[in-house]
Prior knowledge:
nine-stranded mixed beta sheet, hydrolase, two-stranded antiparallel sheet, AB_hydrolase_fold, 13 helices, 11 strands, 2 domains, AB_hydrolase_1, 17% strand
Amino acid sequence: MRKHRTTYRRHAVAALLAFAGAQFGISTVAHAETASARPAAATSAPALATFQAIRQIDAGVLNVGYVDQGPADGPVVILLHGWPYDIHSYIDVVPMLTQAGYRVIVPHLRGYGSTRLLDAKAPRNGEPAALAADVVALMDALKIDRAILAGYDWGARTADIVAALWPQRVKGLVSVSGYLIGSQEAGKQALPPSAELQWWYQFYFATERGAAGYARNHHDFAKLIWQTASPQWRFDQATFERSAAALENPDHVAITISNYRWRLGLEPGEARYRELETRLASFPAITVPTITLEGDANGAPHPDPAAYAQRFSGKYKHEQISGGVGHNLPQEAPRAFANAVIEVDHL
């Protein structure tokens, strides 16, 4: 009788988790075998949430894979992930925002997950203006006039660019590590040795050996970046693998290498984005309401908040997030990130 009762309870808990996740378009998967496949006396691994449904839409030069959750008529929030992560950086943030009444869009950036370039012959271009143009094209395709943009790493840079060049489309901005707009000219400037060391992978990618190495080892390379960028974050293997799957996109390696080579002036980018990059090279001010965030244990290269505060000419606030929080701030401190999104909406 005890054996049957234990099995019943295990299945009941699994059903409740599945029902709860379905309310927010999130499913749960076991870290290992399912309960029904195990002996009754075994202890079940905790369930790992995943996004249940990925939608696809043609937007600009891409067919974009994206999550769309929350009330259709709610204020829109677009969450942008970084490298080498994926949409699951926001797995805990999304339900917090949908519960607050927001419609939340989380796209796979170009080179990640199910997002694909429509033209098989198009350059696998990773320059920053291209990623920003992708977001505007997605908003157009989804008929979204204005949205709150929020992100970290590549996602923060992309959100910064959209806010700077298309401020009429941005209701508010949440940017981890602040103002990340750069230029090829700025990329030519030498940094102090300790700062150059932090960018070791950028110089590695500048070589053919680096491109070949990332193609061969991008899975383990990504895990190393997770560990060094967030030295106090104790993520487990299942959490990493959930995101690492998105790096199997056939364009991921080429777009990653392009992005970092462009920063060093080793790739010219595409002519269609040249005017945008010229405007960005002047480091335009961001005028929309903005909250910048920084973790107290960010192991990735990031500027001092005092160095970029003047770049935000509208309503502005900076918050330091404590508790050993590293580079992947929305996944490591989801409540703080979600609160910042809600707060910037009323800043």
